[in-house]
Amino acid sequence: MAEVIAAVLMTAGTVFFIAGTVGLLRFPDIYCRLHALTKADGLGLALIALGTALLAGSAGAVFRIALIWFFVAVASATCSHLVARHARQTGTEVQHG
Amino acid sequence: MRATSPLRLNASARVPSVIPSDRPDGPAADAAQTPPAVRPPALPRRLHSLRRGGISVLILSVMWGALTGWQLEAVIFGAPAVFLAAALPWMLPASPGWRLSLRGMLIFGVWFTVQSVRGAVDVTLRALSPDMGLRPAFCAYPLALPAGAPQITFINTITLLPGTLSAEVVDDTVIVHMLDARIDPAPGLADLEYRIRLLFALSPNPEHLS
After folding, report:
1. Are B123 and A35 an interchain contact pair (Cβ–Cβ within 8 Å)?
2. The complex's ipTM?
3. Crossing angle for the helix pair A59-89 and B149-158, nearest 10 degrees?
4. Strand (E) or helix (H) holding B176
5. What are the sequence ranges of the domains in chain B?
6. What is the dihedral of CA A48, A51, A57, A60, to 10 degrees?
7. Angle B160-B165-B168 (CA atoms, 0-180°, nearest 5)?
8. Optimal mutation site among A39, A64, A70, interface B, most CBs of chain B within 10 A
9. Are A38 and B127 in contact (CB < 8 Å)?
10. pTM value?
């Protein structure tokens, strides 16, 4: 049962990763692309981490997975802010449409 | 910001009475913070900063131990790393102290989960729909939270809310990028601000409660 739930979670996570990549390719400018990367990939990682944690054999492994998720989430939000700030300060154009 | 200084006074006035329950649970860099210079000394300052250092060493040691599976050989790298990391706050400029409320953490955790799912589903549907429904724009939102951990949490969480991304901080204002300018971001941001006040056990800001 745990395997089935884990597989469903990981599949859903992969869908969000793919959607994030599609957004990265399709969205018109750097700011919109950052939305796609941070939000979709963030949830994708969370779902895959949850699925992996279900299959993990020990509490230590679950703790490590939770730490990885936490630090990636903080780093992703911080990095997207830094990329957007750099884009604004160097005058990157905003695309409409 | 008009609201900032009275709120900061409130926050620092509350801290000394709750020092025994002050347990930072944040990431390693935030886990050890030196007390603010303005705090009235409930404990002698030296003792207080030693206590903070002790807590940092304890938290970092548990993290290292769990990461390495409590192997004895890992202590060779772990012990110097833990003590260096715990010493970092003494080398950095003092930042305001903060504490977390357990109830606020639970409420924030549940709300954060729901919002990040909403944000990701929203951006996924836009990426996969033929007409992406984008109307990108920037807006400015005044920062009313105290500087330090509450403000950083606010700015980082904006990015995970549906349709908003924190792009830049200019003085006391955060510049927010929106995917769809037809949706007003202000109510969502005020809600987030209110929940961060709960999370950090700050007094609610009446300006944003309406």
Report:
1. yes
2. 0.88
3. 80
4. strand B173-178
5. 23-91, 102-208
6. 50
7. 130
8. A39
9. no
10. 0.74
